[in-house]
Amino acid sequence: MPLSTNRNIWQFLALTTILFVLFFAILFYFEDIFIVLIAGAILILIVEKVIEIFNRCMDRFPNCNRKTVGLILLTGSGLLVLFFLSSQVQGIGALIGDIGNIQQDYASGASALFTEHESELSKLADSGLIKPEDLQKIGNTIFSGITDLVSKVSYYFLTGVLVIPLMFGMYFKHHNKIGDYIHAYAPPEHADGILRALESIGRELEDFFSAKMLESAIIGLICCIGFYLGGLDGWLFLGILAGFLNIIPYIGPILGAIPPVIIGYIDSPMTALFAVITVVIAQTIDNLYLIPFMISEKVNINPLLSVILTLAASKLLGPLGMVLAIPIYIIYKIIVKESYVELINIYNKD
Fold first, then answer.
1. DSSP per-residue string spanning 127-191
2. Among 227, 239, 271, 341, which is disulfide-ready with 264 (CB 3.0 to 4.6 Å)?
3. Which 3-state string (H, E, C) describes 74-142?
4. The pLDDT of residue 149
5. Angle, helix 178-185 to helix 188-229, in steps of 10 degrees
6. Is this model's pTM higher than 0.90 or not?
7. Nearest-10 Cα torsion for 97, 144, 281, 208
8. Over pLDDT 70: what percentage of the chain?
9. Which residue ranges traverse the bilayer (predicted)?
């Protein structure tokens, strides 16, 4: 479609862009609530996919009670996940607790983290290559970071418990009626365009997040296997964490590598080395195979533009901006495209 020279069309699109930027600026201002809403939307997507697969499987067994089978599978899988994760977290806690028992020889628990059993870092500090106060600062930074992380996770969990069930209720109650609402309240001549835009946004965002979740699951599985073979305590929890943090472009893999390397070094330098090798293998597979052949097929966007958007969003909005740069661009592109088509139709009629 050729570009229009009508000034009114471009003024409307400029106003749309300003409103779009203001809308997301408000969401990012209330970042903590925004993160909970995103988590809820992703959980809804996962649940909807699981229900779709479950119904497809149950169609082969028409005599089975779907509600009973679904309840048994849901309860069993939930208990299994809780059992594995709790045992993993307890293992990590016990390992760190052992370090805490030797705190009396040092000014802080951070120093103890690096000095269990006369570790290499402790020897370096004694030789003067590393100052003890620098070692202490590094440890204190790690512990303060862990404290902040626990505080934020607690806030997200409590807020999620309150907000996400409401999101589930509203979505599964009204998602089949969205078309009826639009036809009832939107101008009749624009209702189809609005529905078309919403369907395009939903489809492209679903493709993007489905691909990202599959990518994270594969990376998490590779890390779990590598951490287990390397004898890392809490291998399942740390592998899942590495896969989850892989969602964040560029810095996510580094953040995901820090906990297993620290936990591995507490055990032995060789265990830490296994953790590093595992992360390197996972990232090699991700960058050479998953991103080029899986993510790029799902998201129709120029690679250079993708990098520019991600880096700009990270500068302006931090890690959350890096994660949402591409989805926000997808939404904006579809809104502008569909608005342009509707405006062309309106002014052509006039």
1. HTSS-HHHHHHHHHHHHHHHHHHHHHHHHHHHHHHHHHHHHHHHHHHHGGGHHHHHHHHS-HHHH
2. 271
3. HHHHHHHHHHHHHHHHHHHHHHHHHHHCCHHHCCCHHHHHCCCCCCHHHHHHHHCCCCHHHHHHHHHHH
4. 66
5. 150
6. no
7. 120
8. 78
9. 12-30, 36-55, 67-85, 153-172, 213-229, 235-258, 270-295, 307-332
* Nearest CA among 157, 161, 167 for reference residue 44: 167
Output the pLDDT for position 117. 40
Tally Cβ neighbours within 10 Å of residue 241. 19
Handedness of CA 130, 238, 307, 311 (dihedral sign): negative
Give kind and range of the element (H or E) at residue 289: none
Residue 50: the pLDDT is 83
What was the pLDDT predicted at 131? 63
C-beta of residue 253 within 8 angstroms of C-beta of residue 280: no
* Alpha-carbon distances, residue 8 vs 40, 206, 313, 343 (angstroms): 38, 33, 30, 9
86-90, 310-314, 345-349 — which is least confidently predicted?
86-90
- Residue whose structure tokens are 């699951």: 217
Mean pLDDT for the chain?
78
Residue with tokens 């892989």: 246
CA angle 183, 188, 191 (to 5 degrees): 55
- φ, ψ of residue 108 to 5 degrees: the values are -150, 165
**Among 252, 259, 251, 249, CA closest to 308:** 249
Q: How far are the Cα atoms of 157, 184, 236 from residue 75, in angstroms, in the given order? A: 20, 40, 20
Query: What's the token pair of residue 294?
Result: 């899986």
User: Is the model's pLDDT at 248 over the cut of 70?
Assistant: yes
Cβ atoms of residues 140 and 108 within 8 Å: yes
pLDDT above 70 for 204: yes
Q: Where are the domains of the chain?
A: 32-104+146-181, 185-349
Neighbours of 106 (CB within 10 A): 18
Q: What is the pLDDT of residues 274-331, one digit of tens each?
A: 889 999 999 888 887 777 666 666 777 777 788 888 888 888 888 788 888 888 898 8
Interatomic CA distance for residues 249 and 323, integer angstroms: 7
